Amino acid sequence: MTSAADITRAYPRAASVAHAVVSLSRQLGIDPAWLANVVQFESTWNPQARNRKTRATGLIQFMPNTARGLGTTVDALRRMTAAQQWEYVARYFRRFAGRLRTQEDVFMAVFYPVALGKPATWRFPAKVSRYNPGIYTPADYARKALRRARLSPSSVPVLRAFPSLVVGPGAGDLERRRRRLIIGVGAGLLAVIAVVAAVARRRMG
Predict the structure, then answer these.
(1) Which long-range contacts (CB under 8 A, 24 or more apart) does 50-58 make?
(2) Mean pLDDT lowest among 43-52, 74-83, 149-158
(3) pTM reported for the whole predicted model
(4) No. of H helices and E strands in the chain?
(5) Residue 77 and residue 1: Cα distance in Å, rounded?
(6) Which residue did the predictor score with more confidence, 112 or 168?
(7) What is the C-alpha to C-alpha distance for residues 170 and 184, in angstroms, rounded to an integer?
(8) What whole-number distance in Å separates Cα of residue 132 and Cα of residue 123?
């Protein structure tokens, strides 16, 4: 399980909320790396980050309607520190308790909750893709987000669901180890087959 120290090493700007990330993740029953990676992609840990087109603001890019539903506004959020804003991040994620089973689930909970549980190739509405160039499916979002990730998501289902993803350095290690294992097992099977064939030839001779 990812620790607060791990998060701070990977994302120094997360230092003020690293322990809060771990605490919320325990409540949700997920790896803290999943939360940390989505914040890194959405805002690079800048609580004042804002999308000029949509006015999405803050650590996880709260939309204006979402902010109002949480009892605040995007303007108020923009005046907060990361530690102050984390209270609203926690309120937001608690609504998805029990539904977050992979890193990709956490990505979709923030980016487009309707897509939570949808296939990786499910297409977002045209308006969503227009405001987010290059992102047409959950797989597109995951691919881009994991390229910037510095913490390896421990979720095996993510790698199974998106085997072709080009992922960040940490997550890439998992895929490389998986490939080496497959190659090693294949080589071992070929060696066994060769031995069996040789024994068979001797008996026939």
Answers:
(1) 50/74, 50/78, 51/131, 53/131, 54/131, 58/85, 58/88
(2) 149-158
(3) 0.75
(4) 11, 0
(5) 30
(6) 112
(7) 22
(8) 13
